[in-house]
Design goal:
Blueprint: H1 2-9, H2 21-34, H3 39-44, H4 50-54, H5 56-59, H6 74-98, H7 104-115, H8 119-128, H9 133-149, H10 155-167, H11 169-184, H12 191-206, H13 225-240, H14 244-252, H15 261-279, H16 291-309
Helix pairs in contact: 6-7, 7-8, 7-9, 8-10, 9-10, 9-11, 9-12, 10-11, 10-12, 12-13, 13-16, 14-16, 15-16
């Protein structure tokens, strides 16, 4: 046993009993062949599409044991792939124009978002676009636009936005100004758009990608119905969808800085207002069964903010 340990320490594996370098190397080659994009895996995949099934009489039925199948020629594969890409590209551009994305950069970003498998795939594709300076800012604008246009909130945009903000601080600045612009025209936004924005911000706040300090420009004394609804949904989602520790953390981040004194006072005023609304059943989206828990959390947030103010 001691000899084996010394052999491993000195990287002399040939002295380890039962060690076979050829077996290890073979297993490495097998594993490398299973990775996406490897030549072995690509060659092992069957290149069968709808066209092959429709022309089964000419090419053969591969799903029948013993039947011959000629496969698809390289020319046919290339031609079909180009035609499918052209159709997909035309469809994406049409949808982008319908969304009033009036520049090539925005339309290309829209196509990337719509054709990505998940938020990680979208993030990688966006990085590979190699956009510069002003063009790169369009990423956040397009992501936010698509998020607000959804008929129901799609977490895909929240996770993608979080990834972008964590990757580069410039995206945080861009989103901050974009949200401020939305707050100015919130009375012109549809109800679902307001809710989508509130849910997006709640995710970014809990994951610490953004802070409540983004709302330092809001006048909590004079707010229209859309802004009231936005902050009510925001707070309710923070309470109902996240733990007490996460909820406390969101408010603790603005409890310290002296320059956020005005923001803390505004939030305390709104928390009292919402507490009274929930208590009297005036918040329609808060179920009666959850009202006591919601009130308790709202009072908890007020105590966190008032502790710094006193």
């Amino acid at each position: 046993m001691l000899d084996m340990i010394m052999a491993v320490c000195h990287n002399n594996l040939r002295k380890v009993p039962g060690y076979d370098a050829d077996t290890l190397e073979h297993r490495k080659r097998v594993l490398r062949g299973l990775l996406p994009g490897s030549v072995a895996l690509t060659e092992a995949q069957l290149r069968i599409g709808l066209d092959d099934l429709l022309q089964a009489d000419l090419r053969g039925r591969w799903w029948v044991v013993g039947s011959a199948w000629t496969g698809r020629t390289n020319e046919e594969s290339a031609h079909t792939g180009e035609k499918d890409d052209a159709k997909l590209g035309t469809k994406m551009m049409t949808l982008a124009r319908q969304q009033r994305l009036n520049t090539d950069v925005r339309r290309n970003l829209f196509a990337v978002l719509m054709t990505s498998e998940d938020y990680l795939d979208a993030f990688e594709k966006l990085l590979h676009l190699n956009l510069k300076d002003k063009q790169e800012r369009e990423i956040v604008h397009v992501v936010l636009h698509c998020c607000l246009q959804e008929k129901a909130f799609n977490p895909f945009y929240a996770f993608l936005c979080q990834k972008l903000l964590e990757f580069r601080r410039s995206h945080q600045i861009t989103l901050q100004f974009a949200v401020w612009d939305k707050l100015k025209i919130m009375d012109e936004m549809r109800k679902q758009q307001v809710q989508n924005l509130a849910r997006l911000m709640s995710h970014l706040l809990v994951t610490r990608a953004m802070s409540l300090s983004i709302f330092k420009v809001v006048d909590f004394v004079d707010m229209n119905d859309s802004k009231l609804s936005f902050f009510q949904v925001l707070l309710y989602v923070l309470i109902s969808d996240h733990s007490e520790e996460e909820f406390r953390s969101v408010f603790s981040r603005i409890a310290g800085p002296e320059e956020l004194q005005h923001l803390r006072e505004g939030f305390c005023l709104f928390l009292k207002f919402m507490t009274r609304q929930v208590k009297h059943g005036e918040c329609t989206f808060v179920p009666d069964a959850e009202s006591s828990d919601v009130i308790q959390r709202l009072k908890q947030a007020s105590r966190i903010l008032q502790a710094r103010m006193s």
